[in-house]
Amino acid sequence: MKKITNDEAIALLQQIMRIKTVGKDESKVADILAAKMQPLVDAGLATMERLPYAPGRDNLIIVAGPKDAPTKLGIDGHMDVVAAGDPAKWSHAPFGAEIVDGTLFGRGATDMKAGLVAAFVALYNLLVSGTTLNSELHFFATVGEEVDNYGARQLAAAGYNAGLSGLIVCEPSGPQIEPTTRGIIDYTVTATGKAAHSSTPEDGANAIAGLFAYNAAAAVQTETLTSQVDPMLGHATHSITLINGGNQVNIIPETASLRGNIRTTPLADNAAFTAALEAAVTEASGKVPGVSLTLSIDSTLPSVGSPSDNRLVQTIQKVRTAQGLAEAPVVGGTGICDAALLLTPGMDMAEYGPGNDSSHQTDESIAIADFTQAIDSYEHIFAEY
Fold it and tell me: Can 6-181+303-384 and 183-301 be said to share one CATH topology?
């Protein structure tokens, strides 16, 4: 068995990027990775299993390294991607995985099939080369991260993260290391009023007006929370991102709803924001006669992290120095990732992976050099932690 060359790794990444894993079909990615790893499993160098979430959506778990090692490193990447939107707006086919002038274009290039494949190739190459490992390595390829971290929830509930000393999340971090990440709340406010002809609005109760009242109240109730600045994660955010209401221009709307997204920090946590939303609903419910409001918390994950100088961060910095790279800035992550489910108290954390700021955008891309550099970096990080 031979190490995977950079050219072979690039081809593997292209193959995986061409699979349209938008909320489905992650098993097709798992099939490819599992088939590649199977000879090493047969040789006793690793164990491998699938954890089904839904039909066509399997998490893949690979474990390798000394079972009696004093430390265990979790390696996390997700197989799903967000929708590409209008293909006509892309300069390159969103699922074509085209390479132009050293840049690979396509959905998932940065978020995060490049990180996933780089970590897999690094693990494979370490095992083939017979490199002595300091830790037992636990590789997780998860489903549904882009919606509600379905796979990571399932893995954590089943205890696959139990006993890990550290967790490296191979999300695109740019030239920095992120040992913390914000939390998240997705919520819905529904307004119920009474329909009427728009020429006699006094005969009805305008549900949309109820949402306006809620929006004004929520801005006041959350202001104290969003103004607090966490040393690592900055300030929390609260945004209304979806709104729906009414069915005809000359009818007073009977129902309306909005959805909001909040990114929390330890200084402005999920419990505090939930209380603020409840207070805003209560306040707004009395503003528009005949309109009632209800709040549904649809999804919630806390802010998580570990000290900025944890041993995994130190290992990454050591590897960067050995490779002739400058030390990376250590900052808080503004997005959400699988660490929100997989991290436990006392565990080292680092979100560190190849990519740029084109995640979720038209013409998402990654520099091939960034991808191949990540493979080399991961090999050393996985071996030395």
Answer: no
Asked if the 183-301 domain carries CATH number 3.30.70.360, the reply is yes
pLDDT (average), residues 113-125: 98
CATH superfamily of 6-181+303-384: Zn peptidases (3.40.630.10)
Question: Which residues does 194 contact at the CB level (< 8 Å), separation at least 6?
Answer: 203, 204, 205, 252, 254, 290
Spell out the residues 6+ positions from residue 21 whose beta carbon is closer than 8 angstroms to its own: 28, 29, 79, 80, 81, 108
Q: What is the pLDDT of residues 343-352, one digit of tens each?
A: 999 999 999 9
pTM over 0.70: yes
- Kindly list the domain boundaries of the chain, sorted by start residue: 6-181+303-384, 183-301
Whether 184 and 89 have beta carbons less than 8 Å apart is answered as no
**d(Cα 4, Cα 6) in Å, to the nearest integer?**
7
The H or E element containing residue 292 is strand 292-301
Integer Cα distance of 221 and 85 in angstroms: 35
What's the mean per-residue pLDDT of the chain?
A: 97
Let me know: does 141 contact 43? Beta carbons within 8 Å.
no
Whether the CB-CB separation of 72 and 19 falls below 8 Å is answered with no
Would residue 266 be called left, alpha or beta, if left means φ above 0 and alpha means ψ between -120 and 50 degrees?
A: alpha
Supply 350's token pair: 């680092």
User: What is the Cα–Cα distance from 358 to 356, expressed in whole angstroms?
Assistant: 6
Which DSSP letter does residue 89 get? G
Q: How far apart are the first and last CA of the chain?
A: 25
The radius of gyration of the chain from alpha carbons, rounded to an integer in Å, stands at 23
The whole-angstrom separation of Cα 157 and Cα 134 is 27
